[in-house]
Design a protein that fits this description.
The complex is a heterodimer of chains A (515) and B (539).
Chain A lengths: L1 H13 L6 H4 L3 H20 L14 H14 L23 H17 L15 H33 L5 H12 L2 H11 L2 H16 L3 H14 L7 H13 L4 H19 L7 H11 L14 H5 L5 H4 L2 H25 L3 H18 L9 H9 L5 H21 L3 H15 L13 H24 L9 H27 L3 H11 L1
Helix pairs in contact in A: 3-6, 3-7, 3-8, 4-5, 5-6, 6-7, 6-9, 8-19, 9-10, 10-12, 11-12, 11-16, 11-17, 16-17, 17-18, 17-22, 18-19, 19-20, 19-21, 19-22, 21-22
Chain B lengths: L1 H11 L4 H19 L7 H15 L19 H17 L15 H14 L1 H11 L4 H11 L3 H11 L2 H16 L3 H14 L7 H11 L5 H28 L3 H8 L15 H18 L30 H21 L6 H15 L9 H11 L3 H17 L10 H34 L14 H9 L5 H24 L7 H30 L1
Helix pairs in contact in B: 3-4, 6-9, 7-19, 9-10, 10-12, 11-15, 15-16, 15-22, 16-17, 16-22, 17-18, 18-19, 18-22, 19-20, 21-22
The chains are: A mainly alpha (515), B mainly alpha (539).
């Protein structure tokens, strides 16, 4: 079947019946530029909408947090950034990301100070909100996206096209659009306000480097990603296992591993330089990065701990200390199969699946997960969009639903609706070959229609009805349960798919029995 | 809502595919339009909101007398009926929108999204017009036209950010043109009459319509011609009677007309539209300066153009003052070659070009022209742009220039990236689309002479024979290229260098530069179109 699909694609590439020929005939560069400009327009459009915590004192939201970090990094010496003091009250949006985020805040702070000094002055700018201030902050995200995420995607697409050279240019164009027009990422970064584009962009760059065989570069880029947001560790097992598996197959495994280790250590040392001189300051920063006191889950995130807490009150049954251990064990256990597969038989496709599976197990089972963390499994899924379009579509749909309550609070519903519709439209762009509906697909398609229907009804219900007084968060809980069930199902399927890469015949039988 | 769209998508496979593709383009555009809803909106937004309130709260007899707000009703009656129709829904959504006094400058989310969505929905009219005009073309031409019209950055800027209903009105124009192209003259004339009663500025093309319909529809002997003239006349009269009848009944025609034609507004708008009068004003200034240098006593004009307010006194110091009547004569003079052509050889396939030419003349020589009026010819010209390489080259330049001339409409910093990115995307898509279109026709011509050695494939021009073909494809000459580079230079000067070097001095210079520079481009386009029309006269 794989070969047949390939043949079809070759036919499209040769024939003149390609619908998007007019767009793609000048090569990948021209495709990328036009889609990138389109994606930028969409991002600018979303940036007109409100940000999280707009006009909502005293703590505001993520927008104020990021602005506050600019204020702190700009006005205090580097050593005091993570240090509680009279001028740096850590209980008011204290820095809780690794130093690279702090440096990024510093650079953006310089930009803000040049055009609008009031917006980043120490103390007096707390809760600063103005037309120009919003605009400048939005532009810092836009520029980070355009300077880091976009080039990384271009790099990835070039590498991907080299690996699978038989893929038609229209399909490549579609893949670029899927990567650059991911509604979740755009809404969180340019609507809600965060800088995920930086860490995710660095990760995409690292993935592309791995695929093109530049392992040292990949280590460097991924270490940077880890130092921008510690959540990038969701991908660490996949990087670790794939690179280890590759090294073990080389002549001198120990040398190869130590080379990679040195690059990682070197990058970390460079980023942490101001804090590695004394043990005390190092530990202080470290403790800021792991906020265990916030509990195993917050709000209504669609992961295992929060969903099962409807039945089992984890927080009452166990202490935080034991919960830490339990969640760590669960995470490691669930990502172990995919790691073993990669160490055993490292492959490019398997690596992408490994990224997806390890980030899924972290999202579902690790300690202190936020609903925005669904962006992390979504990234490898979008990298795999051409391989498994249905899974990607499915995941995006429920990732959007899982963030819907959050985006509603941010008053981003119009942006949500238009981006969701745009995603579905571009996913189903005319002239695009749909995945063939075989017989064993019919059960899946019923499930798909049913799921979409549930999600649609939940959207409407959430917007129009008010929940009963007894259960004020009833709808959030229902959304959470639905999303969790889908995520767990997808994790199962993708793990299976990864293992099928190695031994297709044997596992196909198992799969048939299961379905 | 997204689910509904998805549903449509799933149905799409069973529909004729080209209809679904057209819908796809339209829905993608609609998503962007919806996304831009919270962006800057001009006073036109409040103008249209006030008209909703006015038509909803007042009896018809007072519509053209109301002075609650400075934004009095100055569109023809059919548009007022359209606003009355919309006001029914706005009343259901939020009664404050249509409250005559409480609604003034109302700006809650309900009114913003309501009005924005009415514009998005009224673009269905444009969709239908484009569907009618392109349904017989091949798929690649269709695609190109859809990109040019449905994804037009000018429409997005003017209608969905600045706020107006041009997409709706141009849709009716395109419907009328499609009927004429099919030879259904009566329907074409009827649609045009409706358009005139919606917005009278479209009347510039009326002479072309009149001559064309007179010669094309009312031909074939005296009796047949005369009876057809009567039929057409009856159709037009019915439309006008429906529109103006109630006001005629109340004896308010004079008032309606005086509201619709405010000639007191002066020759040029506060921001000069890039037309002929820019050169006229400029040469007046230069002449006055030169004469003063030579020792003549030249009085500075009492009224100034850059000041915005223009009264009765002449704003010119040397050249004669321009009256509305003068502009009318000039427009008709400029139109005359086209009218002669339409009289001699009324061909359906030429009508779109003639109408576009008429609007170009109106834009160049008209009285108090807005920069937005360039839409009236850029959109219809998109239909003919895909026909030949020369047209495509002309359209490429014209479209960029006229879109750029709209930049001053969105003057706030927030929208700056939007307008620049839209123009960039439009230029790239045009370049890709035109080069694909004309690369292939050039290639087809080449393969006709050379035996079919190799089909042009996706990888583009990789062999030497393909490189030769490429040269015959879509290439822009060096004059056009340097003009476009100059456009970028004007923008960089106005946005960055001028504030940096001169500060607050001479604040009108950047806008004036845009007007003058774009005026060259539009004049070029006018001459190009005129040449094309005169040439076809000689044949």
């Amino acid at each position: 079947m794989e070969k047949k699909v390939m043949k079809d694609k070759v036919r499209v590439a040769d024939g003149g019946d390609d619908y998007w020929w007019w767009l793609v005939h000048k090569g990948i560069g021209a495709i990328f530029v036009s889609i990138a400009i389109f994606a930028l327009i969409i991002r600018v459009g979303v940036s007109f909408h409100p940000y999280s915590g707009a006009g909502n004192p005293p703590k505001f939201g993520d927008f104020e947090a990021q602005r506050h970090w600019m204020e702190i990094t700009l006005n205090l010496p580097t050593k005091e950034w993570y240090h509680n003091s009279s001028s740096n009250d850590l209980s008011y949006w204290g820095l809780d990301y690794p130093p690279l985020t702090a440096y990024q805040s510093y650079i953006h702070g310089l930009f803000l100070r040049y055009f609008h000094p009031d917006s980043v002055s120490l103390f007096t700018s707390r809760g600063h909100e103005s037309y120009l201030g919003k605009l400048l902050m939005r532009w810092t995200v836009l520029s980070s996206d355009a300077l880091i995420f976009f080039p990384a995607v271009l790099y990835f697409v070039f590498v991907y096209h080299n690996v699978h050279s038989s893929i038609s240019k229209s399909d490549i164009a579609w893949l670029i659009a899927m990567l650059l027009l991911n509604p979740c990422l755009i809404l969180i970064d340019h609507g809600h306000f965060q800088y995920n584009c930086i860490s995710l962009g660095l990760t995409v760059g690292a993935v592309a480097a791995v695929l093109s065989g530049k392992d040292l570069g990949a280590c460097f880029l991924f270490s940077l990603a880890l130092n921008h947001k510690q959540m990038s560790a969701y991908f660490a097992p996949a990087f670790f296992s794939h690179l280890l598996g590759k090294c073990l197959r080389r002549k001198n495994p120990l040398l190869e591993v130590s080379k990679l280790g040195l690059v990682v250590l070197g990058t970390f040392a460079a980023v942490w330089w101001p804090y590695v001189h004394s043990r005390d300051s190092f530990l202080k920063v470290l403790s800021r990065l792991a906020p265990f006191e916030r509990g195993i889950y917050e709000d209504y995130v669609a992961n295992f701990w929060c969903t099962s807490s409807v039945l089992i009150k984890w927080k009452k049954l166990f202490t935080t200390q034991s919960l830490k251990l339990i969640s760590l064990t669960a995470t490691i256990l669930t990502c172990l199969p995919s790691m073993v597969q990669q160490i055993w038989a490292p492959s490019k496709k398997g690596f992408l699946y490994g990224l997806l599976n390890s980030s899924f197990s972290f999202y579902l089972f690790s300690f202190q997960v936020h609903e925005k963390s669904i962006l992390l499994p979504l990234l490898p899924a979008s990298l795999l969009a051409l391989e498994v379009p249905l899974i990607f579509m499915w995941l995006t749909q429920f990732a959007m639903l899982s963030m819907f309550p959050l985006l509603c609070r941010d008053k981003l519903v119009p942006a949500y609706v238009s981006l969701f519709a745009l995603f579905i439209l571009i996913f189903n762009a005319p002239g695009r070959r749909r995945p063939k509906r075989n017989e064993d697909f019919s059960a899946t398609s019923i499930l798909l229609v049913f799921g979409s229907l549930c999600s649609f009804i939940l959207h409407i219900v959430y917007l129009t009805l008010s929940p009963p007084h007894k259960y004020p968060f009833l709808f959030e809980a229902v959304i959470m349960c639905l999303c969790f069930s889908q995520f767990i199902l997808l994790t199962f399927i993708t793990n299976l798919k990864q293992w099928m890469l190695k031994k297709p015949a044997k596992l196909k039988e198992i799969e048939k029995k299961l379905i | 809502m997204e689910e509904q769209k998805k549903q449509k998508l799933n149905d799409g496979s069973s529909l004729p595919s080209s209809t679904w593709q057209l819908w796809w383009f339209f829905l993608v555009a609609s998503c962007i339009k919806l996304l831009l809803a919270p962006s800057y909106r001009s006073t036109d937004f409040e103008v249209h909101r006030h008209w909703l309130a006015l038509t909803h709260s007042l009896p018809l007899s007072q519509w053209y007398f109301d002075e609650t707000s400075p934004w009095t009703l100055d569109y023809p009656p059919l548009f007022a009926y359209f606003e009355r129709f919309l006001s029914v829904f706005s009343h259901l959504i939020d009664p404050q929108i249509v409250h005559l006094h409480k609604g003034l400058n109302y700006s809650s989310n309900s009114v913003i999204y309501f009005q924005r969505i009415t514009v998005i929905l009224s673009d269905l009219c444009l969709l239908y017009g484009i569907h009618r005009l392109t349904r017989k073309l091949d798929s690649r031409r269709q695609n190109l036209i859809w990109v040019l019209v449905i994804w037009s950055p000018m429409l997005l800027i003017v209608d969905h950010v600045h706020f107006q209903y041009n997409g709706f009105l141009l849709g009716i124009l395109l419907i009328s043109l499609s009927y004429l192209e099919e030879g259904k003259d009566l329907m074409g004339g009827f649609a045009f009459a409706i358009l005139l009663c919606l917005k009278h500025l479209f009347a510039v093309a009326a002479p072309v319509y009149f001559v064309y319909l007179f010669r094309h529809y009312c031909r074939g002997g005296f009796m047949r011609g005369f009876s057809r003239l009567l039929i057409m006349g009856a159709a037009v009269v019915v439309v006008f009677a429906v529109a103006y009848g109630p006001f005629l009944y109340h004896g308010q025609i004079e008032q309606v007309i005086s509201r619709m034609f405010p000639f007191g507004r002066g020759l040029c708008h506060a921001y000069w539209a890039p037309n002929f009068w820019v050169f006229y004003i400029l040469s007046d200034k230069v002449l006055a300066f030169l004469l003063r240098q030579l020792g003549f006593e030249i009085q500075a004009p009492a009224a100034s153009f850059t000041g915005g307010l223009v009264g009765d006194s002449s704003p010119f110091s040397v050249l004669p003052q321009i009256m509305p009547f003068t502009t009318l004569i000039m427009v008709l003079l400029a139109l005359s070659p086209c009218l002669i052509m339409a009289w001699r050889k009324p061909q359906p396939k030429m009508i779109t070009r003639w109408v576009a030419y008429a609007y170009t003349c109106g834009f160049l020589f008209g009285w108090h022209v807005h920069e937005k009026a360039s839409l009236h010819f850029v959109i219809p010209l998109a239909i003919v742009a895909v026909q030949s390489l020369g047209e495509a080259r002309h359209y490429f330049l014209l479209s960029i220039v006229s879109c750029y001339s709209l930049f001053p409409l969105l003057f706030e910093t927030q929208e700056y990236p939007i307008k620049v990115l839209l123009l960039l995307l439009h230029s790239i898509l045009m370049w890709l689309g035109f080069s694909a279109q004309f690369f292939e026709t050039a290639a087809a011509a080449a393969t006709a002479t050379v035996p079919r050695k190799k089909r042009v494939d996706n990888s583009g021009p990789d062999s030497s024979s393909n490189a030769i073909i490429e040269k015959r494809g879509f290439v822009i000459g060096w004059v056009e290229k340097s003009y476009l580079v100059g456009l970028a230079a004007v923008e960089i000067w106005g946005q960055f260098l001028h504030p940096l070097l001169l500060g607050d001095k001479l604040p009108f210079v950047p806008l004036m530069l845009i007007s003058i520079y774009c005026a060259f481009g539009i004049m070029y386009s006018w001459i190009w179109q005129l040449r094309l029309i005169v040439r076809s006269l000689e044949l």
